[in-house]
Write the structure tokens for this entry.
Amino acid sequence: MIKLIASDMDGTLLDAEMRISQENIDAIRYAQEQGVEFVIATGRNVFEALPPLKEAGIECAMITLNGAHVFDKEGNSLFTTPIDKNELLQMFDILDQHGIYYEIATQEGNFTISKEARIEQFAAHVTDALPHLTHRMAIAMTVARLEFFPVKVVPSLRELAAQEDIEVLKVICFDKRGNKHLGAAGKKIAEFEDCVVTSSGNNNIEINHKYAQKGIAVSHVAKERGVDLEHVMTIGDNLNDLSMIQVAGVSFAMGNALNELKEEAKYLTDENVNAGVGKAIIRAIEEQL
């Protein structure tokens, strides 16, 4: 019987409008009434994760930035796992050499040196997912969606990262040229001793400290609660969810998930646009998985 549920957000808990459907809300509340704790495990930072949760009236602990920053139910920071700053500078060199757009996520929010470049790269990401859109339509959709992903513009990410009071928790990279360019850079960075490279889309890679992974963070939260991993349920759709899918006793891949994730998960649920999370929760409880 499950005692703890950890769910991804984008492509999983959230629908196409970046909201939590009523069916998902009802299932989460049902689980909580049964004494099952619900936790978010997302690549988003806390400022990006909170709005849809607040709109839905859901209060829960949050594993953010792929496990680099964890918060309790009241929103208090529990721990961070930042990227080593020496490796970070080498990482910037590699990304710059490959001409890849990147921004950094810190405990103070996300930062970029160009909001225009951010919109252009995100628009390519949208076009890849929705190829029927014109470039203009993709730009308009991107501008609207980026309201959910606030970012601060600074003259230099290197200078910001060098500040003693700033912890860089994740580097988010986008390149509309796709895996050919991202893969080459990601492969070099993956060789760093303390880094891990994951992805949440075809035109994106995400870089964290090797101990900042969803699976490690979920394991930590479960241990703190005194819950064995066999009683933990995880739900996701992309490669940055893989580690938590692998550690949980009950794991669900979304219907819209990558095939690699479906192969690793024990169960399959519906797509995010059809309340797949809610359906998985109800199934897990009623069938006592």
